[in-house]
Amino acid sequence: MKNRFFLVVATVAAVALMTSCGKVPQANIDAAVAAIDSAKTMQADIYLPGDFAALNDSLTVINQAVEAQKSKLFKNFKDVKVKADALAVVAGELAGKAVVKKDEVKAEAETLMTQAKALLEENKTLIAKAPKGKEGKAVLDEIKGEVTVIETSLTEAQTIFDAGTNYMQVLDKVKAANEALTAINTELKDAIAKVRR
Amino acid sequence: MRGPLIKKLIYIILISVFLGFLGWLFIALIPEPPVTELEQASRAVSQARDNNSVIYSARLFREAESYYDSAMTSWQTENNRFILFRDYERVKMFAALSQKKAAEARKNTIVRANGMRLSLETETARLNAEIAAFEKVFLSLPLPPETVKKHARGKLLLREAEIDLNKGQYVSGNVKVTEANEYITSSYTYARKILEDYYTGYNRWQELVRATVDESRRSGSYVIVIEKIPGLCHLYHAGKKRYTFEAEFGSNWIGDKINGGDMATPEGQYEVTKKLSGASTKYHKALLINYPNKQDIEEFKYRVENGHLPSDARIGGMIEVHGDGGKGGNWTEGCVALRNNDMDVVFRHSKPGTPVTIIGSTITLEEYLSTGK
Predict the structure, then answer these.
(1) CATH code of the region B220-371
(2) Closest Cα partner for A56 from B68, B63, B93, B108?
(3) Mean pLDDT of B323-350
(4) Which of A20, A46, A135, A160 should one mutate to test binding to chain B, selecting the residue with the greatest count of B CBs within 10 A?
(5) pLDDT of residue B275
(6) Domain assignments of chain A as residue spans, ordered by start
(7) Could B33 and A153 be called an inter-chain contact, meaning their C-beta atoms sit closer than 8 Å?
(8) Quick one: average pLDDT of A84-89?
(9) Are the beta carbons of B33 and A67 separated by less than 8 Å?
């Protein structure tokens, strides 16, 4: 009778031990999620979108692993914990990289903006020097109109730049302005050179 | 003594076998978790996101994500139940739906992105051609500054759209190209309408030129024919064109002169009334013409009487063909300006009574639109 009792107790204890030896490492997962949120705050989704998407993929894998372990009789969350810790580290690194990338894009936008403004001023000077042959005035009027529009576009770009929300957007706008200003610059210089010849 | 021991041993073995069987049964009855299905679904969603389905197939992609979330939620719910009572069929169903929608989104994205790229390429090429046509044909027209600005705005937006095209950002590229199209097409349409309206006088212009040249042929004298659109002044003698010079007009040169101060150059048949040179003109040399003639006066009166012009409007006058031209553009207040050397020739061959016919153009609208000259 005593032996039977010990047998039942041992069986129940073994089952209880086997089914409750693993606990979801929620703190580690929360830390990983917080690190991803932090990377998003640093605009990693804008400046490093591919890497940021990879973070979310890793989180998905972790969530699946958690449920996979929960589905088992003998749970083991060691691997989940390792993955969550690694994800938190990678997300933290990505937040740092996003800051660096943002600074790079900002610097590039700033350089291009300076170039564009210099070109704008140079073009204004060239317009005053440009020849007014047959239809020259009409062409100059058109160029003046274009320069005014580009100037407005650069002002818009400056506003976005000052807000600091998305330097990528500034970059695209300023690149287009620079291309247009360079084309005008070449046109004006060619026209002036022809007259001098 | 041995009997009860053997009996006890058999009893223990039987219990062990029974418990082992129960354990095996318990494990065997635990349902297989849908790990593979969920992995496949998340991979499909991830691939769809990577090929920009979130942009090009937003609805399908959202559905795929939603089914995936439902699969995960169902899985969590099942996992909260007693292990033997779990049923993962719904989880698997949601995972399969998610995978299917993600695959559809991916496929749809490829088709849509290609379509948008093609559309963007076609539109940018078409608008570039329209810009070139505008600059070739309409730039010399006296267009309102707002129209010129619209054209420039469209041109800049088109450049931004081209940058998007090169970066593979077809959605924002298409948005920009649509906006650019509005600016470019509206300025093109407006300019073309001005020209088309102006060209309604084409047949009359031809008649005027024919009559003037016939008069030159009949009388064997010099006549002056001036074309505004190409900006030319022709000198005919005995019905044959002898000289052609570049000419400049009033800043509002398109159309006939309506009243004084409208900066327009009159159109019609006139004649030289006076030759001015030296101190009597400030434009090198000048030929005063008989604007307003009888027809101009009648038209002016009609406009005033019918309220098309204010009652205190004046008809204007002192229209000349004079020197000091070659400035580029149309800058006079309604006169015709020639370069001084050219004016010398015209002046030499003119006298009071020399016919001066001013028209829009001798070339057709189609020719002008195709050549811009």
Answers:
(1) 2.40.440.10
(2) B68
(3) 91
(4) A135
(5) 95
(6) 22-100, 102-196
(7) no
(8) 97
(9) yes
Q: Judge: B149–A149 Cβ closer than 8 Å, yes or no.
A: yes
Q: Dump pLDDT digits (tens) for A41-61.
A: 999 999 999 999 999 999 999
- Cβ contact (<8 Å) for A136 and B75? no
Q: Which of B88, B231, B327 sits opposite A132 (nearest CB)?
A: B327
Alpha-carbon torsion (A114, A116, A121, A126), positive or negative: positive
Query: Looking at the partner chain, which of B231, B246, B328 has a beta carbon nearest the beta carbon of A132?
Result: B328
Q: State ipTM.
A: 0.77
Q: Is B33 on the interface with A (CB under 8 A)?
A: yes
Q: Which fold has domain B2-111?
A: Butyryl-CoA Dehydrogenase, subunit A; domain 3 (1.20.140)
Domain B121-199: top CATH class: mainly alpha
Average the pLDDT over A130-154 and give the result: 79
Residues in chain A: 197
What is the pTM (predicted TM-score) of this model?
0.73
Query: Are B156 and A149 a contacting pair at CB < 8 A?
Result: yes
* Domain chopping of chain B, boundaries: 2-111, 121-199, 220-371
Contacts 24+ apart (CB under 8 A), A95-99: A95/A35, A95/A38, A95/A39, A95/A41, A95/A42, A95/A44, A96/A42, A97/A44, A97/A48, A97/A51, A98/A39, A98/A42, A98/A43, A98/A44, A98/A47, A98/A48, A98/A52, A99/A42
Residue B307 touches partner A, C-beta closer than 8 Å:
no
Can you give the pLDDT at residue B369?
Answer: 86
Q: Do A64 and B35 touch (CB under 8 A)?
A: yes
Beta strands at B222-227 and B232-237: parallel, antiparallel or unpaired: antiparallel
A interface mutation test: which of B21, B160, B324, B371 has the most A CBs within 10 A? B160
- Give B71's pLDDT tier (boundaries 50, 70, 90): very high
Token couple for B265: 């150059």
| Beta-carbon separation of B159 and A138 below 8 A | no
- Residue B220 C-alpha, separation from nearest chain A C-alpha, in angstroms: 32
Residues 6+ apart with CB under 8 A from B2: none
